[in-house]
Amino acid sequence: MPEVIFPLDSSKKFEDQEKVGHNRWHPEIPPVASVKQGVSVRIDCREWFDGAIVNDDSAEDILNAPLLTVHKLSGPFAIEGAQPGDLLVVDILDVGPIPQEDSGPLAGQGWGYTGIFAKTNGGGFLTDQFPDAYKAIWDFTGQKATSRHVPNVSFNGIIHPGLMGTAPSAELLAKWNRREGDLIATDPDRVPPLALPPEPQYALLGGVSDSDFDRVAAEAARTAPPRENGGNQDIKNLTKGSRVFYPVFVDGANFSLGDLHFSQGDGEITFCGAIEMGGFIDLRFEVIKGGMDTYGVSENAIFMPGTTDPQFSEWLAFSGTSVTLDGKQHYLDSHLSYQRACLHAIDYLTKFGYSPEQAYLLLGAAPIEGRLSGVVDIPNSCSTVYLPTSIFDFDVRPSASGPFQIDPGIGAPRASAG
Amino acid sequence: MPEVIFPLDSSKKFEDQEKVGHNRWHPEIPPVASVKQGVSVRIDCREWFDGAIVNDDSAEDILNAPLLTVHKLSGPFAIEGAQPGDLLVVDILDVGPIPQEDSGPLAGQGWGYTGIFAKTNGGGFLTDQFPDAYKAIWDFTGQKATSRHVPNVSFNGIIHPGLMGTAPSAELLAKWNRREGDLIATDPDRVPPLALPPEPQYALLGGVSDSDFDRVAAEAARTAPPRENGGNQDIKNLTKGSRVFYPVFVDGANFSLGDLHFSQGDGEITFCGAIEMGGFIDLRFEVIKGGMDTYGVSENAIFMPGTTDPQFSEWLAFSGTSVTLDGKQHYLDSHLSYQRACLHAIDYLTKFGYSPEQAYLLLGAAPIEGRLSGVVDIPNSCSTVYLPTSIFDFDVRPSASGPFQIDPGIGAPRASAG
Amino acid sequence: MPEVIFPLDSSKKFEDQEKVGHNRWHPEIPPVASVKQGVSVRIDCREWFDGAIVNDDSAEDILNAPLLTVHKLSGPFAIEGAQPGDLLVVDILDVGPIPQEDSGPLAGQGWGYTGIFAKTNGGGFLTDQFPDAYKAIWDFTGQKATSRHVPNVSFNGIIHPGLMGTAPSAELLAKWNRREGDLIATDPDRVPPLALPPEPQYALLGGVSDSDFDRVAAEAARTAPPRENGGNQDIKNLTKGSRVFYPVFVDGANFSLGDLHFSQGDGEITFCGAIEMGGFIDLRFEVIKGGMDTYGVSENAIFMPGTTDPQFSEWLAFSGTSVTLDGKQHYLDSHLSYQRACLHAIDYLTKFGYSPEQAYLLLGAAPIEGRLSGVVDIPNSCSTVYLPTSIFDFDVRPSASGPFQIDPGIGAPRASAG
Amino acid sequence: MPEVIFPLDSSKKFEDQEKVGHNRWHPEIPPVASVKQGVSVRIDCREWFDGAIVNDDSAEDILNAPLLTVHKLSGPFAIEGAQPGDLLVVDILDVGPIPQEDSGPLAGQGWGYTGIFAKTNGGGFLTDQFPDAYKAIWDFTGQKATSRHVPNVSFNGIIHPGLMGTAPSAELLAKWNRREGDLIATDPDRVPPLALPPEPQYALLGGVSDSDFDRVAAEAARTAPPRENGGNQDIKNLTKGSRVFYPVFVDGANFSLGDLHFSQGDGEITFCGAIEMGGFIDLRFEVIKGGMDTYGVSENAIFMPGTTDPQFSEWLAFSGTSVTLDGKQHYLDSHLSYQRACLHAIDYLTKFGYSPEQAYLLLGAAPIEGRLSGVVDIPNSCSTVYLPTSIFDFDVRPSASGPFQIDPGIGAPRASAG
Predict the structure, then answer these.
(1) Model confidence over D339-375: pLDDT tens digits?
(2) Which of D155, D314, D395 to mutate to test the interface with B (most CBs of B within 10 A)?
(3) How much of chain D exceeds pLDDT 90, in percent?
(4) Per its UniProt record, what InterPro entries does this chain match (chains A, B, C, D) (predicted)?
(5) Do A390 and C313 touch (CB under 8 A)?
(6) pLDDT for residue B418 is more than 60
């Protein structure tokens, strides 16, 4: 096993560990460890809410999830020799849930969760159609996930980190705050908000000194969106065997990561759409000197996905166009067309006995694929969502004999008030 | 070979054939043939510009492409027993280029083309960055495509029809015209336009009688966008072996199709991004009675893709977020984030010696995959574009040794004026 | 379409064509055409019995199949620049059944056949268990094969030539005749025979002159076995997109080919186990000068299979060891262990309602995979045979509910006397 | 984590553990644990030589490997409700190397080994060509294996148990001893031997009582070969996600397993061809009552392989026929034709700078595929071996430019005397 450079004790809170991570982006957060190129290291990761979401049949925890506290990031790690302008090469050697325990209280200890977030607390891709909070607990058996809240499906996990990235420079951070502030200013009271400004409350800043804390907390960027440094890209294909190339903006790159997922569908559509969990990841770093300019990668990661993802040979796919549910034509809006494709898939699955929320939770968590199929055929873009048919334990294909009827069981728990 | 129910003579124009197709959607276009369920039939298809684009080293034909004349559709075909409310099941048994000839003047006769359309004549996904007209000719060798205009790449075709669909009802047609007219009215002089209104000029309406022609031509919908009936979905995965389910809106379904592609990348990003060609397609139809309601499929096709597409095990992927090139933050705009991902891929490829236009043409034509990776992480969506590395005859991966330099050859022809 | 350098008229016998092929290997058979390197060419191929097997519900034709007349080979083709010691690179650009006709009398015209050969006329892999002649007709619909004689299965063809090879030198031919003669001499009256000696009767020798004919016919090798020159390898993975490297033994390489299959299982176990048909193949040749020595390929083809074969994600596999049916232990005999694995698969399929012969025919024709799983665990080798479950239209997996029962239909026709 | 029903302490010998396994097959070896159907359990497994092979640069340990002591099997486990005539369904939920340690002395602790066994001590598939003992150590980095003894290759492990099986009944055991004894009697002094008779020396029989020990040890079957009960099948595809169906011969089935491999090529051709290691496996059991008769599975396992094996899209394949190296023609001998295919692959790889032994070790350990391509074309069978090209860090394909030359490094260690 590689050396553990960021250990986590499952019985303690994230801020009470031997090494303390962070939940904001800022260039002044000091590295917790220095790593040589070419050496394999293991890093433990905490699930993004640090235990606030529990393994039960209620969604009150989702309704009240503490969004100001996320994401719990392991790091930063300084990579020896990395300098601004370089490309940081990150090999994901292995990644998995918390080992060695069975039924502990922490997501990753044999289980994980997916949530539909309330419109008043985060929202989601289809929040207009699904404004209330729901939860699904998934149990892990080997590499398979199943759920008492979403019956008749099981699928292999495609375990990956939702969030990995390098630290921004001061200039880059300022740019983020400026452009996101400009967006928020166009509709500052919107629910859910257009973007998330710096927020000192609940800021966790690793080894930032007391004297600097308040200033840094007031500047540091929230971790929700993906940005030039990678960040919360939620790319489900960054499974083990992947190689990712990040731009470097500060000396040492100061790489951080977290938000492990046991599985996720393309888009992570329920907001907390993946199967969230804590776990470990084994990484190895290299540096391509001057690679940002040499390869024209000044922002956003490029990557080569792993080759051991589950293989599916049969898919059922749904398409959507950029017309709203109430019939308004939008111009080449692929976000909308993917919403419509997902809604079509949900409508379809309800014909088999699933509640709409069960279907929505399933699309967030299962290894579905979302494609930008047509983006130029004015005025309609065409997006498609692909469901692997073998994750269902019944025949989910259309036929003359009509849909099989499942027993929806106890259903997905719903919170008391949206 | 199945019976040819819509033959085309490659030496004659599309409107001079034994059976004449159409280039607009209207419920009153009468079927050219009636087809029994369960019977295999062959249908010839003409390339979408009916020979206006030629195999040469100039892009003047792309600049002046007659957009009012498209698409050349074979059909409509009435399927016996199909009625409104049914689902029409379409099996793509086989599809390929025009057989039996070598180097004829018609796309599909051993070659095809991809165009970047000028901003003044159609535009494209990246028209702000690429306002001028360019062309690439692709030669077919067996199942492989190569181009003198885009060197050092070759790939297997994933042949598919860009456009298939059922006829709209009068009500559905009226709905299309209303909502698209509303959109156009918001900026009627935009270049390129927001949408395409009915256009009698160059309308081809199959067997519509002279007395009805002018009225029908004034109502009939243009074929550019995908809509409730399927239509120009440009889904590259509808290759042979696919099964597609279409809603039926009129008696007989009145199914039409055309716009065959030898290959296409997800999105068909250069507007005429696929490798356009004429050819043949073998289909078989069935009907699921009442299937629209039974399965909740009231609009847009659902489908099961074929299982014999080329297999790639290694990809190089690029990500983008919803920030414009000049730094403005947009809110969860997946169309924009896919544009940025594609621009990142183009920037990268130019480091190997390709011109930006060669890279753009390649992304339109090769079997790239476009994914909606993250759609909820406010304010940035994250889209990704995947390039199979094995289509390049050099090592396209980043490495410490820097990019290999290709010889870009004669380059992609550019039209005289944008 | 590439130039047709070996055309066949489906209405005429193989020996009455414009260009006449051959059915024996001999260095003195002169080339029918000369081909430049790098140029695509099309070659028509006749099914191996030249029309003796017909599309009906009788197996008398299989019982009496004229084994002395096979294989009908197109060629030889001289490749410009090829010399002994070179490697001949053959790219299979495309391959398919006879185009342009529907229900003609020749296999390849929309149908093909599989035969269990009688022990008295050829035999087969399991001839002790299946001594009598049976036949199955397969119908082609697009890329799919189905059979009225083997119901409830359908599968995509993996079309390939069963036989391709270069001409032997005189020395190599002499070596073949010597070693095969030695084997025959150990049991000259065996039924079926151990090997097939040169046989002047029915020898077809292309352009060999009358004065040389008798001598050449007495020396020329039969085409049944694969040998140093490639030959009848029956490798089902030589589908389109494959690249094959053959040793060159004579000037020009004198490449010949034939015995097209619409599909075949690994091993072609019923002797005529593939789905036999006539068709066309598009090839392109190159030469690696001195490649035999440079790469150590002095005999037997090496190859890179194509990448567009059907994709299966679920298989049901059977294993066997080198113990005979009556309990005798053999020493590490992988041929026997594969026989036992196939017999286990046949036993299993009969539990679903298939006759043993239907199951045997299916294993010969469908894209099953045969693996040498363990070859060192004395005294038992372990071979395995993999069946893709999705070729069955019922659930073929073992379960507590027991096997589904098919209607075996009219069954596979059996010849009157074994 | 599932309950560990068979724990192993890496610091102790296999026979000194809390629960003691066995290394022979006998119906009277009592179960070490009873397992309920449907419950996930974890079982630790020791590498087959229990630490006799060490991580160094010498092959003396391979030369002197204690073959009488193998295999170290975990079990037997009694499955509640299983009775003779049933099928035991075994789901492999997960399998991996020894967790939680880095560089310990036991194979599985971050490394594994492959050996070419000396002809005088075990032999191997190509023992006539490779009579001496060699060793390669493989290091595990995440899911990848690399070796200082076989440079320029790396590949994902396809971790699997080489040996799983149910206990034989007394009748079945007697049958084994009879038929294998009959074989040995045909050449009792052969080196290597034809088969392995019961051998009391070093017999480890779990909980067999002292009073029964000598009798049982004299009867118990060696574990080398696969047999009716499954056993040492060495099927590399029994990776996680696999479901295996075993015939049940005794009450409780008495299932045992061991011999974990980090990777293996089809055939495990070097005898100890896999990458041997200790580790863990998570299993779940079910029973199909009366399944042996219902499904016709009276012997040898049937199975459904997992779906997360590494995906390769490009292979280089070698073929062989049943002619010996010195030119003697054998009759349809697939064992011989696979030997010849493997020798061709070895010859080829030496042209790139590998020693023959390095190439042989590589073929044993890497995920190569061995196919029975043609088994009926008298007198030659045709076997093929497929190498995934992407496991090499250079271009291993034939080309006009000739083979790349690797640095073979320190080479594979060779033992002092054969």
Answers:
(1) 999 999 999 999 999 999 999 999 999 999 999 999 9
(2) D314
(3) 94
(4) FmdA_AmdA (IPR004304), FormamaseFmdA (IPR054833)
(5) yes
(6) no
Mutation target to probe the C interface, by most C beta carbons within 10 A, among D179, D235, D295, D329 is D329
For residue range C127-136, what is the model confidence (pLDDT) as tens digits?
A: 999 999 999 9
Task: Give Cα B401 to chain centroid, integer Å.
Answer: 38
Chains that touch B (3 or more CB pairs under 8 A): A, C, D
- Strands C73-79 and C33-35, by their bridges, are parallel
To the question of domain A3-304 being in CATH 1.10.10.10, the answer is no
Query: Average pLDDT for residues A364-385, to the nearest whole number?
Result: 95
Nearest residue to D102 via CA among A25, A31, C40, A42:
A42
* Helix segments in C36-124, DSSP class H: 60-63
The CATH architecture assigned to A315-391 reads Roll (3.10)
Q: Where is C415: in which H helix or E strand?
A: none
Residue of C nearest to D295 (CA): C348
Torsion of CA B173, B179, B182, B186, to 10 degrees: -130
From-to residues of CATH 3.10.28 in chain C = 315-391
pTM: 0.93
Percent of chain C beyond pLDDT 90?
94
Q: How many CB atoms lie within 10 A of CB B176?
A: 24
> Tell me: the pLDDT tens digits for B124-165?
999 999 999 999 999 998 889 999 999 999 999 999 999 999
Q: Which residues in chain C are classed under CATH 2.60.120.580?
A: 3-304
Greatest alpha-carbon span in chain C: 71
| Interface residue C292 vs chain D (CB under 8 A) | no
- Asked if the bond preceding D188 is cis, omega within 30° of 0, the reply is no
CA distance B113 to B11: 19
Contact B156/C92, CB-based, under 8 Å?
Answer: no
pLDDT at D295 over 70: yes
Tell whether A313 lies on the interface with D, counting CB pairs under 8 A.
no
Digit-coded pLDDT (tens) for A248-289: 999 999 999 999 999 999 999 998 879 999 999 999 999 999
**Percent of chain A residues past pLDDT 70, beyond the cut:** 99
Hey, what's the torsion of the CAs at A151, A155, A159, A164, to 10 degrees?
-70
Residue D177 near chain C (CB below 8 Å): no
Residue A416 burial class via C-beta count within 10 angstroms: exposed 0-12, middle 13-18, buried 19 and up: exposed
Would an 8 Å CB–CB cutoff place A169 in contact with chain C?
A: no
Answer whether D141 touches A (CB < 8 Å): yes
Q: What is the pLDDT of residue C363?
A: 97
* DSSP three-state, residue A389: helix
pLDDT of residue D79: 98
* Contacts for C378 with CB less than 8 Å, ≥ 6 apart: C331, C332, D192, D193, D194, D195, D196, D224, D225
Residue of B nearest to D311 (CA): B313
Burial class (CB in 10 A: 0-12, 13-18, 19+), D94: buried
Output the furthest CA–CA distance in chain A (Å, rounded): 71
Cβ–Cβ under 8 Å, residues C245 and C215: no
Mean pLDDT of B350-367: 97
Q: Using a CB–CB cutoff of 8 Å, tell me whether B110 touches chain C.
A: yes
